[in-house]
Specification:
Largest sheet: 3 strands, antiparallel
Shape: globular
Number of helices: 14
Distance between the termini: 46 Å
Strand order of the largest sheet: 1-3-2
Order of helices and strands: HHHHHHHHHEHEEHHHH
Number of strands: 3
Helix content: 55-70%
Amino acid sequence: MESVTDRACAAALYSEGDAGLDTGASLLAADPSADEELHRRGREFVRRAWTRGWQPADVVRTVRRELDASAAELVSALITAETAGYGSLPPRWADQLAALPAPAPRNRPDRFTYASALLGLYRLLLRLPVVEPVGPVPGTAAHAPHRPPTAGEPRMLTRIRALLAKAEATGFPEEAEALTTKAQELMARHSIDEALIAARTHSADTPGAVRIGVDAPYESAKAVLLDAVASANRCRAVWNSDLGFTTVVGFEPDLEAVELLFTSLLVQGTTAMTKAEAGQRAGGRRRTKTFRQSFLMAYAQRLGSRLAADTERVTAAAGSEAASDRREGDPGALLPVLAARDVAVTDTAEQMFPMTTTTRLRGATDAAGWTHGTAAADRARMGRGGPEIRR
């Protein structure tokens, strides 16, 4: 015999509009004994999302984007319940689970409202598309324990985070420039050191991938910025504008650098944009979307060339050091090692995304916004001209 949950889900999940949700919520609100089966059904939808390539942070971000913050708290409760029984977790999952919003309590503010919101969430989860996986599903044969970090890795990342936090907090552009440039130099040096160690030890490490949210508003400019950061750190970025994220492909140390630097530069850029816009308003100009779009686009494009120059400078210096070491008997050769890793990253990206297209971005039409954005990028000492954004 069909259960109450079966009838409620049939009414709500496979129809459009609010009528089906109201019918399903009414059935569930009238029968408290259906609660456990209803939540078990939600955990099944979460597991289905994992098999379709989604990870906890992806699901929460999409739910918040398509529904609201309250729905994100509902799905957080389902994810927490589902993952509680996992014996081990793939890389990055522990951090994603720790960052989940506080789980929503059950049946608040009342049974009908709660059931209606839960069914609306299930409708979204049921229709999540298949996306390119960026890691193994928990419990599968492909899920192997994450390799332990190298001895200097935690200390280096802690130092980089501290530098970027200071750059975000300071009110002095020159200090922010120096701190951010130093952080990028450390990232580039760390990437080179990891590459040389992998080559000398014949490591079997292969490129991985991570998804990073690219949220509205001004998502095209943010995607350009993320592409610039990825390119400067020997990664490839592919933007999915429909789902609101970019997938970044690269080796693990480089992926960590991209996540850290992109987040920091976005904070710095938004702060600089707000200050520039306040100056424009003080001069009698009203706030406009075109100013912000042009500011962030200029900021992103200018940053790429700056970032690339920093990486090139560090690589040249490291190449000279490696050449000196070889004269002393060290077999390491930096440029071939980096070239081999670049090929591996490109091959992995093309396997993951065999069908990409070039996206035409909205042009920058505000001269003042472009000028201020370029100046802010110079102060942050980051930028790149015209990266290709693909999805």
